[in-house]
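RECORD TYPE: inverse folding
INPUT: structure tokens
STRUCTURE:
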């Protein structure tokens, strides 16, 4: 598929960079972007060499300033439902991608943009990042999973405040709230993202995938069953060459050479 609204590149072996590329609209998510996003995530999912994906927005003003208001304004209820379901499918594909997805938030991260960022596994932000769920300003609710994922991530009270007031939350506050993991000067964000990606890519690939799966599946399970599931993942790693190599390398005091097998 030739992409018109996103960029998909492999920056280094196994390290993908997925960029929402509509800078004139502050990377607003329209129907076409959501189709391309879903397709691109599928491409990454089918690559056995994939190790991590960085998700960002084009330009220096926005990660994504929300769903495309121009496109949405005359939707019928059923068109709104179809649009929402398309985004849910695309975001779910990021969440369930076997490899980690890290959002690099470089500016406005509003509405559907914030919903996209929190569908990634964690967020690195620039000092210019601004988060918000301003749907109430437009007379609508979130529709891309924001009301649900946000409260699971930062807790009910903080999510309620963001969703009810539409207030913009700057990078330092987002850091204090646990919405983002780290804040960097804007000029350093991409390098820091790549640094994190290289760190992930250097680890045992099967272990990284199973760890993501354990966290994703476990969050909606009761603790006992979630721990049983984790125990099964742990046992499964002992069927891999990577486990033998990782432990042998430790004993031999040398770096491990993982194969993802
Ligand atoms: C379409 C958008 C847009 C959006 C910005 N633009 N956000 N177009 N949809 N969400 C466009 C503007 O129309 C403008 O185009 C250009 O990007 C630059 O934006 P400006 O407003 O001129 O920039 P600035 O004054 O700096 O203000 C930046 C901003 C503001 C604060 C981010 O653009 C803004 O409030 N945007 C909307 C944010 C929002 O409400 N997002 C949530 C959407 S609802 P032109 O052609 O005029 O240059 C949502 C719900 C998801 O996401 C669930 C749905 C199912």
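DESIGNED SEQUENCE:
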């Amino acid at each position: 598929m030739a992409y018109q609204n996103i960029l998909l590149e492999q920056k280094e072996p196994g390290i993908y960079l997925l960029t929402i590329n509509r800078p004139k609209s502050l990377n607003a998510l329209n129907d076409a972007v959501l189709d391309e996003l879903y397709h691109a995530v599928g491409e990454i999912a089918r690559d056995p060499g994939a190790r991590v994906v960085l998700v960002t927005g084009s330009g220096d003003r926005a990660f994504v300033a929300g769903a495309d208001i121009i496109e949405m304004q005359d939707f019928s209820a059923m068109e709104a439902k179809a649009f929402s379901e398309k985004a849910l499918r695309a975001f779910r594909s990021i969440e369930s991608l076997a490899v980690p997805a890290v959002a690099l938030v470089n500016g406005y991260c509003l509405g559907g943009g914030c919903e996209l960022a929190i569908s990634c596994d964690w967020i690195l932000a620039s000092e210019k990042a601004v988060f918000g769920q301003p749907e109430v300003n437009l007379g609508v609710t979130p529709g891309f999973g924001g009301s649900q994922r946000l409260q699971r991530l930062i807790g009910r009270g903080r999510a309620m405040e963001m969703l009810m007031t539409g207030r913009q939350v700057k990078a330092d506050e987002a850091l204090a709230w646990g919405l983002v993991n780290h804040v960097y000067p804007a000029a350093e964000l991409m390098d820091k993202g790549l640094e994190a990606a290289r760190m992930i890519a250097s680890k045992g690939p099967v272990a990284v995938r199973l760890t993501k799966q354990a966290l994703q599946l476990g969050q909606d399970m009761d603790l006992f069953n979630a721990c049983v599931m984790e125990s099964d993942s742990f046992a499964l790693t002992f069927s891999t060459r990577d486990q033998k190599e990782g432990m042998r390398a430790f004993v031999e005091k040398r770096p491990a050479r993982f194969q993802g097998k």
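NOTES: The mean pLDDT is 97.
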